[in-house]
Amino acid sequence: VFSHVVGYVGPVSQQDIKEMDDDPLLELPGFRVGKLGLEKVYDKALRGEAGDSQVEVNAYGRVIRELERRDGQAGADLVLTVDAGLQRFTTKRLGEESAAAVVMDVSNGDVLALVSNPGFDPNLFNVGISGADWRQLNTHKHKPLLNKALQGQYPPGSTFKMVVALAALESGTITPDFRCSCSGSVELGNNKFHCWRKGGHGTLGLVDAIKHSCDIFFYEVGRRTGPDRIAEMSRRFGLGQATGIDLPAERPGLIPTRDWKFATYGSRWSEGESLITAIGQGYVLTTPLQLATMVTRLANGQKQVKPRLVRPAAETQAPEAKPLGVSPYALNLVLLGMNAVTNSQSGTAYQARIKTAGMEMAGKTGSAQVRRISMHERETGVKKQEERPWEDRDHALFVGYAPVNNPRYDCAVVVEHGASGAKMAGPICRDLLEEAQKRDPARKPMFRGRFAGAESAKG
Q1: If you compute the radius of gyration of the chain from its CA atoms, what whole number of angstroms results?
Q2: 191-212 in b/e burial notation, b at 16+ Cβ within 10 A?
Q3: Which residues pair with 154 in a beta bridge?
Q4: Which residues fall within 8 angstroms of residue 265, CB to CB, at 6 or more apart?
Q5: pLDDT of the residue at 253
Q6: Which residues are within 8 A (CB) of 141 and not within 5 positions of it... i.e. 6 or more apart?
Q7: What is the pLDDT of residues 134-188, one digit of tens each?
Q8: What is the rounded distance in angstroms from the CA atom of residue 21 to the CA atom of residue 244?
Q9: Helix (H/G/I), strand (E/B), else coil: 412
Q10: What is the distance between the terminal CA atoms of the chain, rounded to a whole angstrom?
Q11: Is the peptide bond before 122 cis (omega within 30 degrees of 0)?
Q12: Whose CA is closest to 335, among 238, 404, 403?
């Protein structure tokens, strides 16, 4: 349940000795050091410092007397933001899926659950993992050793549309009353770009475009806005860069720009790439943790709150988060759209809504293609997701927050090859947000312990 968060300890290697400044503790037989997760990041702070004793001995090595003693210092207490019950519930809810889920506190970024599924048994590494166990973990198609929550990089699909909408509104490339007609496809040069709904959505505005997840609407918004403005807004919401959470090997994701395209491929940005970027495909990559951070900032509406796994000490003041710098009116339009996704009968995730009064959630579905659908397939009929091999099915995504009228918790779920964000990821997110509200860990007394804070440990 906690394998990817806490990590594990294992025997000291020569590389450990080199990295840890030849700490004499590492020479002790059977000594263990952190190898992964928080055990690795906070290894030195958690184990404390060894004491020493100077003694006088005779020619036979017998101790005559102790000359000087310096007692060892106990390691610090590390208190996590994770709610153990919610973490277990999340793990159980993901079941046998290859998936990741993150639940956060909207007000301060506390990570209340961070699960990468499947997990693994950390005890296998304590005395040195066997060859058979190592091969099994490394060849498993669901990659249990990968922390998908912060190392899995996925196209965000339609969960990205809120950021695109804000980039367009704030830059003035569209106005709040902008409307677009969707007939099911649009042509650009020699290419045809399709909406997920074959017959189209008709004419609609921003709130309805989010509610119905209309691709044609966002193709036009992306064409007008361009990648650079979208990238700038994405960074405000924590995308395309590491969040700085207290875990090793976090991946940054990718939000493309014109300069990035030219530097990477030596070619200029094409207008068609603006279209597919606007629906969270193409070069765009995000992690589940980044998506949860994005929703935290959307629901918070004021500050660039960062995720954290370690509670600061009582005497430590958390640094003030930067302002988002997004107009309340533009933000409100986007949130109205997210509310309609789950609470309007024609919304894409109405069937996955929270029905408990006062706990309703707002959200956004997403499905990310892992392979391009050819024109031949479109003409002859694309296979249904469940008829395709598992590895060819779309990734299923869902992001949401609750309660709608006073956001307290948010959640991001990615199910690898789960096919449908509405049918697979949406119900999981619903159950996690409902459980979070029932448990309400943010209202519980905060135990901080003796830990001096992340900066001192890292230093």
Answers
A1: 25
A2: eebebbeeebbeebbbbbbbbb
A3: 286
A4: none
A5: 96
A6: 98, 391
A7: 899 998 999 999 999 999 999 999 999 999 999 999 999 999 999 999 999 999 9
A8: 25
A9: strand
A10: 29
A11: no
A12: 404
Phi, psi of 164 (to 5 degrees): -60, -45
Spatial strand order in the sheet of 409-415: 111-117, 99-105, 409-415, 395-402, 362-368
Q: How many CA atoms lie within 13 A of 458 on its CB side?
A: 10
457 pLDDT band (50/70/90 cuts)? Answer: very low
What gap in Å lies between CA 364 and CA 284, rounded to an integer?
Answer: 17
Tokens of 85: 């019950």
Give the catalytic positions in this structure.
158
326 secondary structure, DSSP code: -
Q: Does position 385 have pLDDT exceeding 70, yes or no? A: no
% pLDDT > 70, the chain: 92
Question: CA quadruple 26, 32, 35, 36: dihedral positive or negative?
Answer: negative
For residues 38 and 410, the answer to whether their CB atoms sit within 8 Å is no
pLDDT at 371 exceeding the cut of 70: no
Q: Element (H or E) spanning 235, and its range?
A: helix 227-236
Question: Are the CB atoms for 218 and 212 separated by under 8 Å?
Answer: no
Q: Per residue in 8-34, pLDDT tens? A: 998 888 778 777 766 777 878 888 888
Average pLDDT, the chain: 89
Tokens found for residue 254: 């990718």
Residue 127 one-letter amino acid = V
Instruction: Say if residues 401 and 411 touch (Cβ distance below 8 Å).
Output: yes
Among 194-198, 378-382, 384-388, whose mean pLDDT is lowest? 378-382
